[in-house]
User: Fold this.
Amino acid sequence: MNLYNNTPGEVFFGIESSNSGDCGTITPDNTADWPSYDNSENVTVSFAAYPFSEPPTITPFSITIPESGTGMAVTIGIYQE
Assistant:
């Protein structure tokens, strides 16, 4: 599974399924590749702004993917109108 950061800033991510969990950061316009989550069920991906502040000023959000497959991607971005 590929996690792509389509924002102008670095983001923190967490990815987990029933039998594993990982985390890290993704710089702008870059991808984190996690093939170990391909073909897994109920994969949850969380994103938050980085660096963190105390207390947190931005609420992280998460996406649960019921069933993943090879070649799937999760992309975050900012839309400005």
